[in-house]
Amino acid sequence: MTGTFGREPEMATIRRVLDETAAGAGGCLLIDGPAGIGKSHLLRAAVELAGSSGIAVAFREAFRLDLAAPLVTLAGAVRGCRPAAGEFDWLSSDQGLENQYQTLERLRASLEHAATRQPLLIVIDDAHWMDELSALAVRELVPALASSPVRWLFASSPVAQDTPGRQTLAWLSRDGNEPIHLGALDDAATTRLSTDVVGAEVDNTVLALTAGCGGNPLRIGKLLTTLRATRQLVISGGVATVVGEELPSSFIDTVQDLLGSLSVEAQWLLRATSVFDRPFGIGSAARLTGRAPAELFPLVEEAGTDFLTEEPDGLVFAHQLVRQAIYHTLRKTVRDQLHREAAALAREDGRPALEVAQHLLRTDRSGSAEAVTLLRTAAREVAGAAPATAATLMMHALEALGPHGPGRPALIAEAVGLLASAARLHEARELGEEALRAGLDDETEAVLLLGLAEAFKHGGQNQTAVDYADRGLAPPTVSEATRARLYAIRAHALCYVDQLEAADDSGARSDELGRRSGEYGASVFGLTARSLVAHAEGRLDDAYAHASTATELADRVGGAAVHRHPRIWLGNAQACLNLFEESERTFARGRRESEQLGTAWAQPLWHYYYSSLLAARGQLDDAAAEADAGVETAEQLTAYQLAVPLLGTLIRLAVARGELAQAQGHQARMRRWMSTGITAAPEDVVWAEGLLLHATGESGAALAVLTGLYDNLPDRPALVGTDPGAAATLVRIARPLDAGRAAVVVEATRRLAERNPGSAGSAGAAAHAEGLLNGDPVLLRQAVDLFRATRRPLVLAAALEDAAVAGRGTEPEATVRSRYAEALAIVTRCGARSDQRRLEQRLGAAAPAGAAAPPCLPLLSPAERRVALAVAAGRTNIQVAADLFLSRHTVDSHLRKIFDKLKVNRRVELATLVARECPGNHLST
Question: How far is CA 317 from CA 41, 270, 290, 311, 313, in A?
């Protein structure tokens, strides 16, 4: 067993989590600390312990060059799983990653399936260097597999570069995975380590020297090994002592002294191969040193584990600090020549362009021009799967090119687009403005401004996006195709800064120019903006017509137009017209297309709009799980601008479910993202905050927050178009404090109904709002009848309750109570616990007569109970999603809540609980 001197607390934690994993629990453990502090040693001990506990192990060390190869870190780990797992055979080294969504879904399914046979430990050393797609996969898979026996163990060191791996580790830490910080060894541990290294007790001369290593295990080990190799440490009578005067004074001196104990040939092998910042084969080392491969075998044996270790991908230095110490022994001329030869070898072997470029950049300036070309090539190779990495590579290319290099403006224009895709808005703006100051032709400048507009639109900074689009549209010589794209992004941004007329005009222009120039993606995107405008203005049929036209066009022309996913807006328009089955089919097809195309940006939007559909149907638990999954997905994708409206949805749903503390937590999270400059529609943010204030008894504060929404409602009745029940709630908030604003709601809702004569929801909203304001029982009964036709149970329940209140004293008591009872049955079935408690008080009973006995697992909602029963039956999350027609993320969200409510951590615990409490359930047998 690998020794772990001084790391007893850390090993106790590792033992505990591995015991939990062996028993069926998942999770994540982070270890960090400076280089050489013993992280890798601790990982090796964890791997040995896992193996002896019957846990399969997938291990890989990440390297800096992993950044050039999407998914190489994680794929390399699981492909090397021990014992071998056939589930990962498809992850061949040449596996295409054109559709990263499907790749990650397949990887998740493989991990889930493998974990049903044997618990699994996935270990990534130097995880800060993991590639971007692996980092994205980790963000997705760690929470998704938390209920499966899959344990993740990551070790990292501080690095100056803000890598995707470092960002993911920080995200995991914020998500509740507190890292283990490894510090220096204490004196007792240093003594034990020293004794182990030299194989004998050590005296004060040894301890005095090791004290200068600052408790760093790597430095202590190398120092003692060097002293033995140079015969400056002798053992007499079972005790080691230091002799001699010229002792190494630093780690580099230590490594150099140890290097000097080898033959000249072995020294040259190590010094030459120190230019490889990755595992290397004997063949590469032979070509670099000018020797035959067979001649190197004895030299590798001579170097031993002090310098080299063997991994599945080849030989690698025992530690990066050791490699760097040897690398710095090379004179510059020798180093330059070795890098030139290594670049040639990498090119011959078909290594990634980034590797060739990095070797060239470490030579003299003559290699810089070629390096720029290679870096640009490397950026293009990985842009689809790893936009942040591509942006970093392009920034390196610009750095190598210099401030006055040829073609810099064109390179900047390309870099801005990549920075925009990676949501690095500040850098994109600075770089873009630099290029604009340098002077570009009108078309190139417009394309650059389009990239900036898209970046800031997708970053939620809509007014800035409008400003950039306007600048791009200013020159009359810009091509129609580019103008179409600028108008489309401008239209969408204007929707969110409440300039609806201008947004509609921009959408119409983008449609016209797009069709004329063949830029059909712009036409589709412009039409969806027009659908958004029509919805905001309460023109529900127009919203449906524009979205239908966009969808038909995308289906007909294909290509880039399909990637705009117009079914997002078509499904929403159908839901607003109460076409729930059509909306369901539209969302299902759109999601399938999105998965097939790998357009990850659309995933949070599918969650947002589908959650709205579920809420309209009264499926509050499923709606909350869908929205929660959307937030999780948005944050995993760093699409924080899409997290804001989803968090607003969660606030509203939590209020309806009587979970005010949760609602306040969602509000704090939403405000945190909005403090970065993200803007969102008032129906998503302001309405949610007003509802929360009203629910906590602060109606005056709610009215103040909602003032703008009240005043704009005549021109922007989107809220009522989406949720007809909102009209009565707005009246309810304003009526005691500001009758004028309550009257504005009534008038705005009446106009909405007139504008949509075929909409029972709009007509019901108008009757409900006016009936509530004036206490008119006839209008309230009319609202009840209209809402029955919409199949929106919660708005029907609200109208029933208000009709019951208005009928007291004028209608038979039995009629009033029947309305109360029907409303109570509805809200109870939907899980609207806030309304349920109020109606129970009004009825004077805890439940309506004849209510069913509490089901098994009473702490769970009906939606959660269905998931719990399926999981207890041995189904994986992916299988449960298929069985229950839910998204995988929604099942993940349900399961997290199930575990939290039932206080279990493992699927087997859930199965045991279900078997005990639900003996009649066929799924649990």
Answer: 15, 9, 20, 10, 12
Question: Both 543 and 638 in a single domain?
Answer: no
Question: For residue 29, what are the β-bridge partners?
Answer: 153
Task: Decide if 381 is inside a domain.
Answer: no
Rounded distance, CA 710 to CA 703, Å? 9
Query: Residue 496 burial (CB < 10 Å; 0-12/13-18/19+)?
Result: buried
Residue bearing tokens 């059509």: 582
- Regarding whether 199 and 130 lie in a shared domain, the answer is no
Q: Which of 393-397, 427-431, 590-594, 643-647 has the highest mean pLDDT?
A: 643-647
Structural domain boundaries, residue 503 = 387-395+408-615
Burial label for 86, CB within 10 Å (0-12, 13-18, 19+), is exposed
CA angle, residues 17, 21, 25, in degrees to nearest 5: 105
Helix (H, G, I), strand (E, B) or coil at 589: helix
pLDDT digits (tens, 9 = 90+) for 231-278: 888 898 889 998 876 667 677 778 888 888 899 999 999 999 999 988
Asked whether residue 336 is assigned to any structural domain, the reply reads no
Residue with tokens 């990962």: 88
Residues 77 and 59 sit within 8 Å (Cβ to Cβ): yes
Same domain, 606 and 721: no
CA contacts within 13 A on the Cβ side of 773: 24
How would DSSP label each residue in 114-178? HHHHS-EEEEEETGGG--HHHHHHHHHHHHHTTTTTEEEEEEE---SS--HHHHHHHHHHHTT-P
Same domain flag for 69 and 156:
yes
- Answer yes or no: do 44 and 118 share one domain: yes
HEC assignment per residue over 753-807 = HHHCCCCHHHHHHHHHHHHHHHCCHHHHHHHHHHHHHHCCHHHHHHHHHHHHHHH
Give the chain's length: 925
